[in-house]
Amino acid sequence: MTLAQIEHRADREASAERGYREAGITVEKLGQHIGARIGGVQLGGDVPAEQVEAIRLALAINKVVVFTEQHHLDDESQYAFAELLGTPTTPHPTVTSRGTQLLTIDGAANSWHTDVTFVDRIPKASILRAVTLPEYGGATTWASTVAAYEQLPKSLRALTEELWATHSNLYDYVGQADPSDAINQGKTDHYREFTSTEYQTLHPVVRVHPETGERALLLGHFAKDFRGLTTAEFHTLYQLLQNRIIKLENTFRWNWRLGDVAIWDNRATQHYGIADFGDRKRELHRITLAGDVPVDVNGAHSRVIQGDASHYSAILPSPRLEVFAA
């Protein structure tokens, strides 16, 4: 990062701090590249507009924001708050929500990913609320894909900016698990539902964030190949880039407590639900907000290979935030 970029970032954060104070909220930074805790707001459908805008700004800057002591929230008020931040998608392109407007997360996706990248209209953000927690374990970790891109050497940036990857929902959640095991049988059933309709989309490996103008690596476990490279070349280069993303200094870990809510920018992060709680119950409720079709550094858009996701989400471009304007 150049001195000019550092100075611009400092000016941006100073401007944001003024906005937070005017909105009556506090934003406590929890990591250099990712993660912040927001205080002074009670989430719900009646959050004042100035606080909603301050939350949106804090999310753009910090990539993940968490709220504590939100015990008053239920599914209805969580959804009402989500509508203030954007337009909710249906819960998932293939997984049924059993009649609710939220997706119940009752396991842990113990692999790094960005949500729903196998469709063209990648969600812009998710809002996750803790409902039932195990006595131990079950934390979630996020990684900044913006920081990872910015830390690449110039030559590697140039390479990644020209790469395109195929993303597919044919991701093997089950692996080599024993199908006779009850837990693994549940995973097998989930996988069948998850892949009941096949989706494939060609995305740029480097996308430009619509609200911030920042560049981010678009990878995760739904990426299956790099266009024009062999399978061996894909695996080698993919792992190199993934290792950059999940470098500990680029991550933020949250140990859930009841009353906690986390919001993450799905266009600038990957996340990993840690499966270290055995057969104990862990339930979180997620609402996902509609986003746009990724654009590469040359202005080219992602392209659908297979599957129509129009039933899942609208395509809603986001304008550039004022503090990120050139």
Overview of the structural elements:
The protein has one domain: Clavaminate synthase-like (Double-stranded beta-helix, 4-Layer Sandwich), CATH 3.60.130.10. 27% of the residues lie in helices and 22% in strands. The protein is built from 7 helices and 16 strands. Strand 1 and strand 2 form a beta hairpin. The radius of gyration is 19 Å and the shape is globular. The protein starts with a helix and ends in a 20-residue tail after the last strand.
CATH fold-level topology: Double-stranded beta-helix
Which whole number gives the mean pLDDT? 91
Q: Tell me the β content.
A: 15-25%
| CA distance, first residue to last residue | 17 Å
Number of strands: 16
pLDDT < 50 runs, ≥5 residues: 173-183
Helical coverage, percent range: 25-40%
Structural class: alpha+beta
Major beta-sheet overview: 7 strands, mixed
For CATH, the homologous superfamily is named as Clavaminate synthase-like
CATH class: Alpha Beta
Rg value = 19 Å
Q: What letter string, H or E per element, gives the SSE order?
A: HEEHEHEEEHHEHEEEEHEEEEE
Number of helices: 7
Q: Which of globular, elongated, flat, extended, rod-shaped describes the shape?
A: globular
- Give the strand order of the largest sheet, numbering strands 1, 2, ... along the chain: 1-2-3-13-5-15-4
